[in-house]
Amino acid sequence: MTDLNSEFITSLYDDDFKKMIIQLLSETDLNDNERIHKLVEYLAQEKVE
Amino acid sequence: MIEYNYTFFRDEGDEVRPYHPRYPLKFFNVADLNGNSSTGKSTLMNLIALAFYGSDDPTLSAALRNRVKYLDENQKVTLDFKVEMSTSEGNRLKSHVVKKLDGNGHMLPTEITAYEIDASGNERRIFKEGFRKKYRLIYDIPDDPTKRLLHSIEEIQKAQKDYTDRIIGLKKTASLIEEEIRKSKDPAAIEEYNAKLVKLNEELERTQNTVNVAETTVKELRKLQYAKKIKTITDEIDRLKRLKTTTDKQNRKINTDNKKAESEYRIALTKLNVANTALFQTYRDCYEKMKIIKDLGEIDPIPIDYWFSFNQKIDLSPKDIPEDFVPITNTLIESVERAGKKYKSDNDENKYALLTSLMNILKDYSQKNESIEILQTTTDSIYSELKKELNVISQKVKKSQDYQNAQKSLEECIKKAMNAHQAFVSVPKKPEEQDKIEPGEDIKDKLEAEEKSLTRTVTESSKYGVNATNYYTILDNAQKTAVLLPYLQMDSYQLPTAIRQLENDIRDGESAINGKDGLKSRIAIITNRLEELEKSKEHPLFKYRKYVEKIIKTLDTIQKDLSTKNGILSKFVNTQGVATNLTPNPEQKEYLNRVWKNLGKRLNHIRFIDTEYEITEVNLITSEITTTTGKTIKIFDMGTGESQNAYLLNVLRSNQESCIIAMFDECENMDYNLRMGIRQELISLYDSGHLLLGLTASHGKNEAPRVEEFHGTK
């Protein structure tokens, strides 16, 4: 099931990285530190320059 | 199930009136309270809302929030309310609300104690923030459809603001991590700082050396300068002293010479006077003899007589020739000339010459200004001529013994005259007195000033170890000191300039070393930083620091973007209505289209007339609902029931992650089918474990209070 609010905010962005940020922010069982680590992992995985 | 109970007292002035539940104390999670007014439907809903922190829940409408707040803050209401409810999966939530007076009759703050209990029976207290993260309290009254849709817009705005807040929080965390990374151990930075430190230390050493050399040079140059100064002053003192000595000596000699010359002069003058006296005496004697010659009748007696008379008349002293001597003499000369003419006409030229010579002597004497000098130059020839003439005469008057005697006497006179003449020759000119060279006050003053200057300079120079006895050694040594060689040729103007330049160099160097941003300060900063880096621990995200930067930048972009989007939404749709007169630009239009689509998703389905439609978007500017079948429904064409249905479904579906406590009051305007549609949604949520309570309230028609339960599959 999807949160309509987060879905709406996510829908505002076409950029995957931004979408991921919104998605992580909507996951209430994560804290901000964990979110940052996940974002870093994502960027590392994507080999973003 | 939900179980509850309460005691509720309201101070109504004349009495404290109790209120008790009139509906069953336990019923199924999805239910409808049906009863007349004042049966406690709204009271139960208000108490449930209060028990789960609804008195300041911003998602509730202001009217309902005030109702809950009234219970919370009213000083005339005391209560004790307990409620417990469970999900289909066995998770439970309970709360106990106590509002009471203290011993003095003052109202104490409301105490809310809520707990969540998992399926295994583990109990954990839950506070407001935790509750709102995990649960969602929905308490509403369906009414005007347009207003309700606008509330959905508000919800979108709140969501945007909520995400903006989350973005800000995440950005703050990212910034803290970035700061931690910055302070963490960075081998490359350590290497870089070490290299910088080496360079700075080298520069410090170089600069310090330059300063040291300059300081030494300045010190030596100061010594040199003082030594030179002392030498100059000493030389000047010596010169003045020598000058004074020489002057004194010369003056003594001049004095002696002057005195000697004066003395000699006076002697000479005396001799001259004597000689003159003798000379004039000789003349007088001569004229006596001339008288004898006259008596012999050889010479015209007239001028002789005249001279004789003159000779008797005046005293021919060289010291006091009378002022009328010249006219007298001129008269005599005229007489002699007249007599001479006679001799001349008689061809007695010798006599004429003799008289002429005598007249010339007188004439010379008449020219007092030429004085003795003229006498000196003429006497020789005069006497020579006189002697010659007398010899001639003597030849003519040989026969006369008297004449011979006269001649003899005359010769003696001539001899005396010659002696006198010799005396004239030996008399020096009066010496001109040599000017004395006085030592003069200026030399004394100069000497005194120079000596004072020497004392002062020696005092000043003592700190450089220069004094009046060692300056020569210092000057000698300077010649052997390589660093001083370029300065030795400088004059007294160039050297101070060079010293000032060196002192400037020293100041610049010291500033470069000790200044605010000087080398030492920079070295200290880098050393501290290095120490910090050495002490610091490695950060797990160190090698991903660029990613952290990117995250921060992206979060910043999203934050600004959401803020802009909220601005757009506020511009076109707000609680005052919809700005249908404005035309959005392409960017605004794109965003608003996403909003309309999201509204469609939130509504999902509507029942219009007898048909159920799936919605794709709700455009508030055109006031149109577009369905998946392509049908366009004007919002204002929808009845109240459809609107309520659409709104309530929107509310229930807007956040499907939280566990919901939903209460809808005053649902009597909804028709049966629509109401059942809502209940079906509530049952569906309960079955999926996302609903704790789905309670509706409808105004009954003279019916006793009752609860209608709607069971799902579980």
Q: How would you portray this structure in words?
A:
- The complex is a heterodimer of chains A (49) and B (714).
- With 49 residues, chain A is mainly α.
- Chain A has 3 helices and no strands.
- Helix content of chain A is 69%, strand content 0%.
- Chain B has 714 residues and is of the alpha+beta class.
- In chain B, 61% of the residues lie in helices and 14% in strands.
- Chain B has 19 helices and 18 strands.
- Chain B has helices spanning 41-51, 62-73, 128-134, 145-183, 187-295, 301-313, 325-345, 349-366, 371-396, 401-426, 440-461, 471-480, 485-488, 494-514, 519-535, 545-572, 586-603, 640-653, 672-687, and strands at residues 2-11, 16-19, 26-27, 30-35, 77-86, 92-99, 111-117, 123-125, 135-140, 573-574, 577-578, 605-608, 611-619, 624-627, 632-634, 659-664, 691-699, 706-709.
- Chain B is rod-shaped.
- In chain B, 28% of the residues are buried.
- The interface between A and B is large, with 29 and 43 residues.
Defining key terms:
heterodimer; A: about 50 residues; mainly alpha; 3 helices; about 70% helix; B: about 725 residues; alpha+beta; five-stranded mixed beta sheet
